[in-house]
Amino acid sequence: MDKFNIYKEGLDLQFAIDACMQRGRIWHMKKGEVFELVGEPARWMGFIKTGYLKYVAHNEVDGKDYSMAFVFEGELAGDYPFCFYGGMSDVSIVAGEDCTLYVMEGAEFNLLFEESIDTMRAGKQFAEHLFIQAYTRVLNFYRTDAKNRYIGLLQRCPHVVKKLPLLEIASYLRVTPTTISKIRKELSEENKSFEE
After folding, report:
1. 130 with 82: CB under 8 angstroms?
2. What are residue 44's DSSP bridge partners?
3. Of 66, 81, 144, 174, which is most buried by a Cβ count within 10 Å?
4. What is the pLDDT of residue 100?
5. Cis peptide leading into 81, omega within 30 of 0?
6. From CA 82, how far away is CA 54, in angstroms rounded?
7. Is the dihedral of CA 35, 58, 69, 121 positive or negative?
8. Is 0.90 topped by the overall pTM?
């Protein structure tokens, strides 16, 4: 899942990962358990040892939940930056499968970025990279269609289709599972005609 969350490219957050593993407590979560709940104070940052978490936003108009982000094994998870200050969570963060995490209080995690000029710089870069990832994702909803968003996801992270259920991929791309199935069929037919 290396290229799914591109914000971490070029960042050295090993000091934060080490802190989670050394100072944090270990959590074992079952699939469907809640890490953070929308409307409640956000509290936690964690390092995912195994499994993955999904960020879920609820759409009041259509009454549906949408998977808007995922964090996988070897990545940091939390409702950033709200967990640093106990702000209300805008999303729920839920275990997509059984997970093991090293978890710290968000306020304690935030202090890591104040330990030195290097960690302050890393904190600034962390925020910038997260912004760029989110901004690029929003732009892609306007400048590409569903098929090309799916192709882009496959090119960036081909293992995602093996890791995530079809329903989760469709939710992430804001299309129906039927649309993803049709796109897959089209791509399969295009590959067959290319091979002939």
Report:
1. no
2. 105
3. 66
4. 98
5. yes
6. 17
7. negative
8. no
Average pLDDT over residues 28-39: 97
The distance of Cα 175 from the centroid of its chain, to the nearest Å, equals: 18
Ramachandran quadrant class, 70 (left: phi over 0; alpha: psi -120 to 50; beta: rest): beta
Q: Terminal CA-to-CA distance of the chain, rounded, Å?
A: 32
Q: Averaging pLDDT over each range in 7-16, 91-100, 185-194, which range is the top one?
A: 91-100
**Token pair belonging to 119:** 């960690």
Task: Tell me how far apart the alpha carbons of residues 106 and 98 are, in angstroms, rounded to a whole number.
Answer: 22
* Nearest one of 18, 22, 77 to 52, comparing CA atoms: 77
Kindly list the distances between the CA atom of residue 44 and the CA atoms of 13, 49, 76, 188, in Å, as whole numbers in the listed order: 17, 15, 11, 42
Residue type, 61: V
Mean pLDDT value of segment 3-30: 89
Q: pLDDT digit string (tens) for 156-179?
A: 888 887 889 999 999 999 999 999
SS3 at position 6: helix
Residues 6+ apart with CB under 8 A from 85: 106, 107, 110
Kindly tell me the burial class for residue 34, based on how many C-beta atoms sit within 10 Å of its own C-beta (0-12, 13-18, 19 or more).
Answer: middle
Report CA-CA distances (Å) from 136 to 16, 117, 143, 191. 25, 28, 10, 28
Nearest Cα neighbor of 78 from 60, 90, 67 is: 90
